[in-house]
């Protein structure tokens, strides 16, 4: 299960990086993650935090979200990046020959080259 939300005001994470959006992802095997985005329109997170539970993660972020609140989305497809709201994967990963830094996106039922 995944959900994301936009912060009502950016949060200064360290001296130079601001967080504008957060995605929570609860997995069965690895636990719960909070992915942090340094741009409101970013597809890939800039950093992430491991959280004890989904409830703990929600408690940490609920009060910081804008009025849209949490937006639920489906879990990622196999081989897709967990922190991307779109079905995006590393090219060749499905064949066991990943081409790191090259991506493809599922569009209209076909995997097509994609540049984020």
Question: Could you please describe the fold and organization of this structure?
Answer:
By secondary structure, this protein is mainly beta. The protein contains one helix and eight strands. It has a five-stranded antiparallel sheet, with helices on one face. Strands 6-7-8 form a three-stranded antiparallel sheet, with no helix packed on it. Strand 2 and strand 3 form a beta hairpin. The mean pLDDT is 94.
Radius of gyration: 15 Å
Portion in strands: 35-45%
Distance between the termini: 23 Å
- Point out poorly predicted stretches: none
- Shape by Cα distribution: globular
Largest sheet: 5 strands, antiparallel
Give average pLDDT, whole number: 94
Number of helices: 1
**Biggest sheet, spatial arrangement of strands:** 4-3-2-1-5
Helix and strand pattern: EEEEHEEEE
Strands, total number: 8
SS class: mainly beta
- Helical fraction: under 10%
List the keywords:
about 120 residues; mainly beta; 1 helix
Q: What is the secondary structure topology, with strand pairs?
A:
Blueprint: E1 2-12, E2 18-27, E3 31-37, E4 47-51, H1 54-61, E5 71-73, E6 88-90, E7 103-107, E8 110-114
Antiparallel strand pairs: 1-2, 1-5, 2-3, 3-4, 6-7, 7-8
């Amino acid at each position: 299960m995944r959900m994301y939300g936009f912060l009502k005001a950016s949060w200064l994470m360290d001296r130079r990086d601001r967080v504008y959006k957060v995605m929570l992802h609860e997995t069965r095997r690895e636990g719960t993650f909070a992915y942090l985005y340094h741009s409101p329109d970013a597809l890939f997170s800039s950093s992430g935090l491991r959280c004890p539970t989904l409830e703990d993660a929600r408690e940490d972020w609920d009060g910081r979200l804008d009025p849209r609140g949490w937006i639920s989305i489906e879990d990622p497809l196999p081989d897709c990046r967990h922190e991307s709201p779109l079905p995006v994967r590393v090219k060749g990963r499905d064949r066991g020959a990943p081409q790191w830094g090259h991506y493809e996106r599922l569009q209209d039922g076909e995997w097509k080259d994609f540049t984020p």
